[in-house]
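User: I'm putting together a teaching handout on how multi-component assemblies are represented. Below are the sequence lines for each component of a complex, exactly as they appear in our records. Could you produce the 3D structure of the whole assembly as structure tokens, so the students can see both representations side by side? Please keep the chain order the same as the input.
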Amino acid sequence: MKSIKMSMNFKRYLQFVVKYNTVLIFLIMLLVSAIVSDVFFTSSNLFNLIRQVTPVGIISMGMLLVILTGGIDLSVGSVVAMSGVLCALFTQTMPLPLAITAALASGLLVGSLSGYLVSIHKMAPFIATLALMSIVRGIGFIASKGAPILVAEEASALTDFGSGNTMGIPNPALILFLVFAITSVILRYNVFGRIVIAIGSNEEAVRLSGIKVSVFKFCVYAITGSLSAVAGIITTARTAVGSPVMGVGMELDVIATVVIGGASLSGGKGSAINTLLGVLILGMIGNIMNLLIIPSYLQQIIKGLIIIAAVLLQRFQTKNN
Amino acid sequence: MENRVELRNISKSFGGIAALENVTLKVKPGEIHALMGENGAGKSTLMKILSGAYTKDAGQIFIDGREIFIRNTYDSKKLGIGIIYQEFSLVPELSVAENVLLNQLNITGIWMKWGQMKKKTEEIFQSIGFSINPSVKACTLSVAEQQIVEIAKALSERVKVLILDEPSAVLGPQEIQKLFDTLKKLKNEGVGIIYISHHLNEIFQIADRITVLKDGSSSESLLISETDRNSIIKLMLGRSLDTMFPVNHSIIGEEVLRVVDIVPENQSKGISLTLRVGEIVGIAGLVGSGRSETVRAIFGADRQKKGQIFLSGKELHFRSPRRAVMEGIGMVPEDRKQHGVILSLSVKHNISLTDYKGISNPFGFLHLKKEHKNSTGLIERLQIKMENENQEVGKLSGGNQQKVVLAKWLNRECKVLIIDEPTRGVDVGAKVEIYNLINELSHKGVAILVVSSETSELMGICDRILVMRKGQIQGELSKKEFSEEIILRLSIGENKNLTELVC
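Assistant: Of course. Below is the structure of the complete assembly, with chains in the same order as your input.
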């Protein structure tokens, strides 16, 4: 009897660790970062970190929605490039607000196209977005004629915003926080969020309950495309340049953050706060290794190992439940 | 004579709640031993302990008088215990032969010898009296055929003990007879068979003895020849059941649904039927007669090739279930787990699926309190038993899961409710509650279309019964004309010889 009680307590302890594993990994990383480098907790470094993770963070909210429905979007990195290029390009010929709107619209359009292929033509999301990844990257190169485009002098408001702070917080981070807050609220308290999660759990049962599943599937891709454009515009604002090689490989980082945040790639499981923690965790890995001047190839390896560890911990969770 | 298998004083708890307490089950060689009990009584748990899926907390297990220890499913198989679960474990994309010989694929060396595998599979099928093409993919088979493959799979290795968990749930009368023939053969070979079922008719036909589980405890085992239905039901429920079916004084009104020449997706001929306010119409027929396809076409779940649907006189076209639901039609699907509920979500969330408008504001933000009140009301009304309202539906028993599906549709004011197999895999207690609910709904004016493979069920609750065969309605019976024999004859085609039937 005593041994059963002891093992039950141990099990409960283990369950706690597993349930909050993302938070725990995050706290451990903070601790490690603080110990390993005395520069980590300086405001300039932290602000740098937040600025670095903002584009990935913004897109990850959209990617979370897509993954919740059981899909995936590989085109996000290419949309970042295309929208950044278009934004910079349009500042040369249009007033800034119009340039930004046009760049946003381009992302929305690409996302809508992915959404259309997945929801109406029932194409596998992997294939549809893989194809768009290629096409959109090409569009970015054509529009920029292969070379980076400087943001026009008249549009300095953009670059000021990109590198500036409001009340001490970097502007892009405010946008990240806004996107995160909206996503979190929608997933918890809005019908849209509920249905997205339900679709990822059992699409057919949702359809047979009288819900038009295709509409929701379409929307999550359109949203992700738009958020990728936001990320592209912010990156352009920060660097004052729209480059066709922005965001190469970014889709994998975004997906990694969602997975570290505990979402299941088969859909139906995941939360905004955990995804945000995943973003910060991934960001911290890069940040710490930069501070320690660890060469970037080693960073890749360590990144990969942490992703494996996080996913294994989550497997434990579903098994124990 | 030693018992083939004996489970003695078995206890098992999950998280502090006792699922089994000192349960004893003894099966002699060559005996078919029925195991009955309400859902949640512990039957599946007990069998999973025997099959190695769970480990017991206390008690002993003996095979042929020798105590054995089962740590996992591999141990169990090695000891000669075979089990056929209610939920299929076939690999959909592999062929039938590969599925049947799944645990023995290495016997032919590292390269799979197709010829050998096909032959062996065919032999197994022959020995049980069925014939299924071993080369086709398992996912292309009908539910009944999949069940037969499951049986073949369990028989592909020599078994001493065979456990069948609700095997007849998806089989038609012919197939059940063949199953019984196979079981009798196994009996003669000395196999101890444990047969779990809710169907008293079958048990009285095939079993030698019966043990009843109630709330985790086992009864004495009774000889079938020395007991009767009522005694068994009393053991299961702790009370006797005089009438299963509620007395139905139906008040039938005007026509509410008229279906004209609907041709479901994979069929070629059209079907027509009408339904009136407050009427309960049953659709009988063998597995594969096209009943589910027809009602799915009416609901818009599948594309219909042509045909018209009139709801209260208004012509409608359903290209998806959404329109049907908006207009007041609901459907409880045949496959509850895949199509009826979302197993990983809570009872509350499942119920809300059909009517978000009622519990949210125009921007889509949910009134969580309203949702809670709404779902609590329905849970009470249907007496859905669960630990707490946030429990995953996947953890509920079959009967309670079915109630969740019904609650989902009660959440809307449906004009027409289609129920495909209302009590499949549902225990006796919940069955009665569901029949009462159907009756109550019809009194409120809901028109109900019930598809069922249990003729007695249809005769007990319907006002009219349509009998389908090969995609067509063969006949229609009014309440006075109800007879199991006539329904069976119509299902199989009156003039055809019983043995001439296609499997």
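A couple of points students might notice: The longest strand of chain A covers residues 149-150. The beta strands of chain A are 149-150, 165-166, 169-170, 241-242.
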